[in-house]
Design a protein that fits this description.
Layout lengths: L1 H4 L2 H14 L7 H37 L3 H15 L3 H10 L8 H21 L1
Helix pairs in contact: 3-4, 3-5, 4-6
Length: 126
């Protein structure tokens, strides 16, 4: 997450000051490797938290619209990009529709448009 947001670099000045205080003029390679691993762990934890809900949303789209797993993924990604909504938040909204909560109008329109685009492309390829 830190690598994606570019915040890993924010930690560098503090490390450089600590290295100078300890008498080291060059940053250690281990520090860079540790930063990379920390970033990767944060990203993996985030993925583990959000993936189940995304998979549920894909299943709902597959069942509702007769889409394949890949098509449902493409619909979620397309709608997420077009609405500037994080994929996991869009997926959470889709999952709540099972309980009868309607999607917000703009989100519903973009999701419907994405399904229409995906199914139209598939029909043309067939």
């Amino acid at each position: 997450m830190l690598a994606l947001t570019g915040t890993c670099d924010l930690l560098a000045p503090a490390r450089e000051d600590a290295d100078r205080a300890a008498g080291r003029s060059e940053p250690r390679a281990e520090d860079a490797a540790d930063d990379g691993l920390r970033c990767e762990v944060v990203q993996l934890r985030r993925a583990l938290q959000t993936r189940p809900e995304i998979d549920l949303a894909r299943g709902i789209l597959m069942a509702s619209f007769g889409l394949s797993a890949e098509e449902a993924w493409d619909v979620l990604v397309m709608a997420s990009q077009n609405t500037n909504t994080k994929l996991h938040r869009l997926a959470a909204d889709v999952v709540t529709t099972v309980n009868g909560t309607p999607l917000p109008d703009p989100l519903q329109k973009h999701l419907t448009a994405a399904v229409a685009r995906i199914t139209t492309v598939d029909d043309q390829q067939a």
